[in-house]
Amino acid sequence: MPTTSPSPAPARKAASADQHHDTPAIAYRVELADLHAHLYRVTLTVQAPQALQRVSLPVWIPGSYMVREFSKHLQQLEAHQGRKVVDCRQLDKNSWDLTAEPGKPLVLRYLVHAHDTSVRTAFLDAARGFFNATSLCLRVHGQEAQPHGLELVASRQTTGWSVATGLAPQQVDAAGFGHYLAADYDELADCPFEIGAYWHGDFKAGGIAHRFVVAGAPPSFDGNRLLHDVQKICEEQIRFWHGQGGSKPPHKRYVFLLNAMDDSYGGLEHRNSTALVCSRRDLPRRDEAGGESARQAEGYTTLLGLISHEYFHTWNVKRLRPAEFAQYHYDAEQYTQLLWFFEGFTSYYDDLLLRRCGLLDNAGYVKLLNKTINQVLQTPGRLVQSVAEASMDAWVKYYRTDANTPNATVSYYAKGALVALCFDLTLRAEGRGTLDAVMQRLWTQCAAGPMSEADFAAALAAVGGRPFDAEIAAWVHGQGELPLRELLERHGVVVHDDPAQLAQRLGLRVSEQNGVQVKVVLRGGAAELAGLAADDEWLGVETENEGWRLSRLDDLALYTGRTRSVTALVARDKRLLRLRLELPAPQDGKTWRLAIQNTQPVDAWLAPL
Ligand SMILES: [Zn+2]
User: Fold this and answer.
1) Spacing, Cα 111 to ligand 1 middle (Å)
2) In whole angstroms, what is the distance from residue 289 CA to residue 338 CA?
3) Is 260 in contact with 215 (CB distance < 8 Å)?
4) How far is the CA of 401 from the centre of ligand 1 (A)?
5) From residue 200, how far is each of 251, 256, 328, 521 by CA, in Å?
6) In this predicted structure, what is the pLDDT of residue 256?
7) Distance from the CA of 530 to the center of ligand 1, in angstroms?
8) Over residues 179-188, mean pLDDT
9) Which residues of 42-61 are buried (b: 16+ CB within 10 A; e: fewer)?
């Protein structure tokens, strides 16, 4: 459904815009130049360039810790001063030096190809546009602290389209096309734009105006239900950080930019907005005959968890942030050991706050926690890498997975969430406080700004009444197992050891779309001992006197019966191999099943305060 009034700002005539406001020191004019060629045209005016003016496009976007070289999509860069062509000398993959006459406006023009549906880059076609300034806006070195203007130009092709962004409108039309103003480059880079005929709805939480935008919604989409539930999440989180009074939420308004696609999942946090992608199937639906299926309910909970996660980042990583991120550096990797805190603790609270605001019950929450625990326990890399190391390595490991990833790395999201759980349950068991109090203390202690591990340790000690150095050393910097079982049982949740799935017992991860394709061979498992390798196709299995073609892994037991010693027939680089494989017994692998045994301590931990 197209929207008609996307901007709370007073609409003025855009035609005379240039006479109505001062031209910012740095001004970008963004045109949706060619929808079918997926090209944005950018005209950048630098009012007072240096004699040798350097410009560069970021190589990464804060929140997504991987060098993505956005400049690969930039083309046909040219520069002028008046009628004079200015020499652009390319220095490396993403920066240029311009020999300009100082003090005289310098105008750069270029095109950016945008055909990536991820939340990290830019997209343009006949249905919608989306961009981060890190993909479109060259950074003018030495002038990053100046006001940066962005004019988004409407065209005949964008009739019926609207604009949504967290950036402050300066002078825009009713649809939101026109002039926006950022205080500096960082703010510009932190405010993505969604453009198109999207659905939108508004609500208030904690007195703050929130807008939710959904592009690509199917006809069944229940917008009212989404708004109602997201409002609960936002109110819960504002209460979480500011409930005791004394501090105010850091944002004046907030925009959710969600793009619903066939099959996608992800989000990127910003200071007063977030860009999200989800599967259309995970959106809430209106009047479904027969009610909501379990699968639909699970998909919707996943979406609410994602929304909760990104919103929590408004405090935890956008304001409270690693000391190393006090100033963003856009030209190279920016390392921190603290992603276990900023991503892991955010992951702990995303689902926990869904429980606290009533969108999950205790059993639903414990089920999600169970999933996270098994995910970590099934990753041999948890015994190889600490979450502090995983944070440093995010740039080359977490964001660049391969067949060895589960053997060598651990997720600072999943294990980080379990580290948060361990701190929370330890504090609660000792009766001195909760992790909530630690988070709230950090917020004031670090003045909603950069923090270090020492700040975390100090806040923990202050709340818990003793130093937690040993726990930090073991859980954050160590590779050992976390004391999950003991802590959960102290809080009314028992752990049952169920038999593991066949793939887990074999030490394999496979895809079965086209025969049994080996994706990952886990460290120390039966498959590794037999010599199976990633990219093998597992064709069949032979027992003593017969052979069977294998099309699904779970059929293995059908063909092998009680035989433990078999031959796996494998195709590798067109060669056929026979590998001796010792099949593990069903009791050889265990997976955890959590069950609530005692409601009282579980309620004390999980239930609404
Ligand atoms: Zn996150």
Assistant:
1) 31
2) 47
3) yes
4) 17
5) 20, 9, 32, 45
6) 98
7) 38
8) 98
9) bebbbbebbeebbbbbbbbb
CA–centroid distance, 269 to ligand 1, in Å, is 7
Centre of ligand 1 to C-alpha 267, Å, is: 8
CB contact set of 224 (below 8 Å; sequence gap of 6+): 201
Per-residue DSSP letter, 337: S
Residue with tokens 């964001």: 399
Which amino acid appears at position 570 of this protein? V
Distance 516 CA to ligand 1 centre (A): 33
Tens digits of residue pLDDT in 462-481: 999 999 999 999 999 999 99
In this structure, how many other beta carbons lie within 10 angstroms of the beta carbon of residue 585? 10
Other CB atoms within a 10 A radius of the CB of residue 93 amount to 13
Judge residue 4's burial from the number of C-beta atoms within 10 Å of its C-beta, 0-12 exposed, 13-18 middle, 19 or more buried.
Answer: exposed
For residue 19, the CA-to-ligand 1 centroid distance in Å is 42
Tens digits of residue pLDDT in 227-246? 999 999 999 999 999 986 67
Cα of 150 vs centre of ligand 1, distance in Å, is 27
Kindly give the distance from the C-alpha atom of residue 259 to the centroid of ligand 1, in angstroms, as a whole number: 17
Q: How far apart are CA 421 and CA 8, in angstroms?
A: 40
Kindly give the distance from the C-alpha atom of residue 186 to the centroid of ligand 1, in angstroms, as a whole number.
19
Which contiguous run of DSSP H or E holds residue 110? Answer: strand 106-113
Q: Write out pLDDT tens, residues 142-163.
A: 999 999 999 999 999 999 999 9
Going from the Cα of 310 to the center of ligand 1, the distance in angstroms, rounded, reads 6
Distance 313 CA to ligand 1 centre (A): 7
Secondary structure string (H, E, C) spanning 160-204: CCEEEECCEEEEECCCCCEEEEECCHHHHHCCCEEEECCEEEEEE
Tell me the CA–centroid distance for residue 399 and ligand 1, in Å.
13
Distance between Cα 304 and ligand 1 center (Å):
14
Q: How far is the CA of 130 from the centre of ligand 1 (A)?
A: 20
Q: What is the DSSP-derived secondary structure letter of residue 607?
A: S
Ligand 1 centroid to 476 CA: how many Å?
Answer: 18
Give yes or no for a contact between 494 and 594, defined as CB atoms under 8 angstroms apart.
Answer: yes
Token pair in block for residue 309: 């996660």
Q: How far is the CA of 235 from the centre of ligand 1 (A)?
A: 19
CA of 305 from ligand 1 middle (Å) equals: 11
Q: Return phi, psi of residue 54, to 5°.
A: -95, 140
Nearest to 424 by CA among 497, 483, 361: 483
Is the alpha carbon torsion for 115, 120, 121, 127 positive or negative? positive
Ligand 1 centroid distance, CA of 21 (Å):
37
pTM given for the model:
0.94
* The residue to which tokens 């069949």 are assigned: 540
What is the spatial distance between Cα 172 and Cα 187, in angstroms, rounded to a whole number?
Answer: 19
